[in-house]
Protein 1
Amino acid sequence: MGSRNLVGLDIGSKFTKIVQLKEKNGVKFLTNAQLVSTPLDLNMEDPAMVKDFLAQLATQNDLKNKPIAYALNISECIARYLTIPMVDESEIEQAVMWEAEQYIPFKLDKVNVNYQILNVDQKNKNLKVLIVAAKKEKIELLKEVFNSAKLKLECIDVDIFSTINAYLENAAEKNKLVFILNIGAKSTKLALVDGVEPIYFSYTDFNLDSIVADIANKLSISDSESIKMLLSKEKDPHLTGIIESNLINLQNELSNVLNFNFSLIADKHIDNFVLAGGACSINEVASYLATVFNIGVVKLNPFETLTIEDTKFDMGNKYLFDVALGLALRKAW
């Protein structure tokens, strides 16, 4: 059986994104992209609530019996690089699991572990491997909830890796060192990508909701009014100052990451920041980062290289779809 397209499903705190693709003669087409408001009271730890929301999505977006790809938050996983001796292909999994056991703070029978070989070092006779582990209980509960909503969960990924996937799909040149920042409502996901290889990934608590709350507090306005002001194209100096005072926190976080990973990039220059997520719609974020780090900022349009067939899709929302697009690029078998 050949590979099949997956439906990318990304449930965010504000919006849920759905992406469906098709491919013909090497050309990828966007056939469906949906932006759905996530219920304000949705608790992702409450299986009944999640099941009801998924069932609603399935009915309203014709998702029943279609293979779904979903992403865990990087904060819910353990991900790291390992170097293992070069062994026969039949022994790789055993070697990876033996090495992984030293870094995973749970018994291996309590977690699902997946791995990907990133590099084969013939000179030193070893393999560079990326492992990702998640609690088996979490995975099984997800499968159960999706199944109860009549959805076929066929791929579970990690959000930052889906963003990287979307970046690589759209990158005109794949030999650059880039720092990807997916800045969302609740947190920021980070990744250093050298060419096509992620060399660092993490997350930080910096988030857009905190900027919204700070503006609302200092200007004595509602959160909804604060959001409108934050997204406006023209801002007065006082509002810009409030935004930039918050961005100092992000600057410090990124500086710490770069200092910590100096050994990985000491002889290289970061070509670009790649900005993803809701922050792409706030001009001050890109301009601030470019100024304080003296590094160019590129906004990730997940649909840059796609042929758009969904004529109803509002391209003004395109920056929100990096994770969903990265998921839809995965294949089911």
Protein 2
Amino acid sequence: MCERYDVIIVEDDPYWYLQFTESSHPKGAQPLPNNSTKKRYPFLEALTPSYLTIDTSGRVIRLDTFSKTIAPGCRLGWITAQPAFIERLTRITESSTQGPSGFAQAMVVQLLRNIWGMDGWVGWLEGLRAAYEARMKAMCHVLDTYRESTVMLESQDDDSMIVDKVRMYSFDEPMGGMFVWVHIHIASHPAYTAYIARGHTKRAMMGQLWKYIAEEHNCLPCPGWMFGANKGIQEGSSTEFFRFCFAAIEAEEIEEATERFGKGIREFWGFNADEVESCCLADVVAEAQGKEAVWGLGYGGFGC
């Protein structure tokens, strides 16, 4: 299709090395012929192929980064493309950003060329992928445990009531990267209809949930509306999502931190409309009830 209509493909894949699919876990590679001078890296060969591997006309511009694999603060990456594109991108850089930090460049070059070499670089990537996958599995295990809540549907008298289980959220294990996206089924909240009937919006109720788990349980996921490209998306489908980062927290803290979210959302699901309205009256999360600013607690969906 791109060949037919002369479409340029910009392949921006910062998490390419952090794949958690079965195909990215090689059980062993076939050895090269004895007369081959190439060295094989089963880890790299098992990754989902880049569009560069099927590009026959030089229309793919691939963007890669060291920020997701060495250090987020280095803000350093590279572009792979045909010479005509590289020449133009070089001229644009010369007249705009002037290139990344010289210190960051020197550090990465020293690390790759003089300390790790190619063998060390690939070994680091393989170990990083394994560490992140273990963290992801731990987070998803706890999320799976808390996804349902028991709610009271009707109180018949002082001695009996009708209860049911509702699914508060759903999620899929990510196939790569550093985040788990959680879909909050906010409409399943027992007080949702009453809350909306008072003139509030779905976004407002999600905001109350977000602030409640931050203020009361020191858990700060990244709200989906931050990623909305326009107001319609911010108030619509993106509102129902939280993003959790398992890369920005110590591995041994992931289960306890994720449990804080689980306990917080279960408590929130037990609120009536009055309690949803009044549970978070502070305008700024960090100012709530004089508690430590949750922005610095190191757990949440925020990350690069």
Protein 3
Amino acid sequence: MAAVNETRPGLLFFLAVCAGLNGAAQGVPPGAAALTYTLCVINEHPTAADIAPGSSGDYKWFNGQWWETPPPPADYSTVSNVLALSLGGDLVSTPRDFSAGALPVLSGSNGFYVEFDVRLSDTNQDHWPAVWLMPVEHNAQMQDSYPGDPPGFERWMELDVDEGGWGPGLLGTVHSWTGIWPDFRSISNPNNLSPVALDRSRKHTFGGSYDPLARRVAWWVDGELQMYAAAPYVPAVAAKQHFYLILSAQTHGKNIPYSMFVSGVRAYVPLAVELLTPRVQGSSFSFTWSSIPGQTYQVQRSTDLGAADWLNLGDPVTTASLTASFSGAVTNTQQFYRVVVESPTP
């Protein structure tokens, strides 16, 4: 194990990163374990009470896509402690203005695995339930336009973990979108329909992962791998983007009423924190570490690197950016510092 070691005669900086009681989650799903993404950063059992009354704030879910008129609040309810979306319901995990909400966005540079527990009220093929991800950079400010691109040219990845009503089983699609509004075009993986039939009136767990190193997306149902997609359908630009979650109860055209029940939403990322810019100035020292927006960290101290119990320093810190910092006074006593990564409880 590594740690930040602080003494006055000579300072040696290195970092211990530990999972808290809920950190590197036990029972990591196979889709996350396949990539060694063991840190659970979202673990939700959503209800209608988690939905923001407005378009921003410290809430977990927000009503409607930023480019559309929000659906009526009556499209959402809680049934037996489970979130129910009626036909037309459309929830996102980030405020409509893309300010910070209660749930973190998922960094493409790190990679991620997400999964959704979903069932429908019935199996009519007109129902079009969808669980999917989009990057926050695709917004009205066109932050998905990058240096070297033509003016107004946008690039982004859309990851559809599952869409119902297209065939007997999961429809999982990754889109590489490019263009200048309104002339956007995409290419997508042709192997997007699983032949494994599903009874959508029963709960299923739909999972999707994005691996930036392999530039590959994978889809899972109930812990079983369904298919992969890679370049050119998985765009390189996805590694520069940050993704939010979407729950939609759509229709294939007949507008037959139904309910989409979402009983669980989870996201896993690599358990990896990098020590950045350790400094000593006079009688004080500081260190910065890479962080995940919305993730909570606790700095701890001990005089014994192998101690079972470490002392918490201050309150846990929930970060809103890609870095977090700690500072303290240099002493003549050897001290070790570590950062405990805390994972959300449902």
Protein 4
Amino acid sequence: MIKLNYKILMRLLIILAIFGSFVNPALAQESPFGDSQDANTPNLNQIQFLQPSDQQKQVIFDTAQAIIPPANIINTNEIVLNVLTQSIRAEEIYAGKKIKAFDNKFVFQIDKKILNSPAILNLKEIILSPGSKMIAPNGFQLASRIYEFVYAGAETDLKKAIWFSVKYDSADYFRKNLYYFDDATNKWVGIKGIISNTVSKIIANVSVPKAKVAILEDIDIMTEGYASWYRYKGCDCAASPDYPKGTKLKVTNLKNNKSVIVKVNDWGPDRSVHPDRVIDLDVVAFKQIATKSQGLCQVKVELLTVVESAVK
């Protein structure tokens, strides 16, 4: 009969007690091995692996380093440059909260006295990966970074409480508009925005809790389409989304060949709402090429003179 040394037996019990205490019940079930498997070959289908928390996932991506970023930072569509997560108290939201992010290129604002519950705001600054499905459509180019916002709060009826603004890259606002990316159709869809050229931003008011938004620029200048009319200065002037104020244009009615020379003094029409409209004419100018009752007429627009600010 084999006699065990008392000291050796005690050492074995201590070792088992120490290493046994490090077993994580979240990582292994009662029987992590199949009946027909060797004890050294675990069945991975029966092991519950812990998932990293959202805080652990927020890794800063340094474009200057030759590294492969984690899967949550780069995928087939986008590269996340910066991430901002902020908890907002109910009293801050009710008072109206403005959050400036990514060097003030994206501003998120909650209108005051509309919402009154705490929330978490997640923001991302994004550029596209090569071959991304989010690439701008033909005739357009991105004029800003892509910004994603996710507003997670108890209140679901936002009642257009959310305002945001995006800063555009170039010095002028011509041919630029806000868009959001529709994941269901894989298309950029226009958002009616307000241009603030003094700060090079476009502002929008929405009721959605999350979206990926960007400014797209129309690089194909529209020369033919519909002209509408509006009352403004009562002169030979017009609104154009393609040319800056001060530019002179010749507008010709394609049905009767009548033409008028106008000076651009406003921006419009919004092609995210009216994609077939090339220009808005003051009613005085419109009546020189068509009857006011028509409302619209098909025209050709030609550039006559361009102001210095329009030359890039």
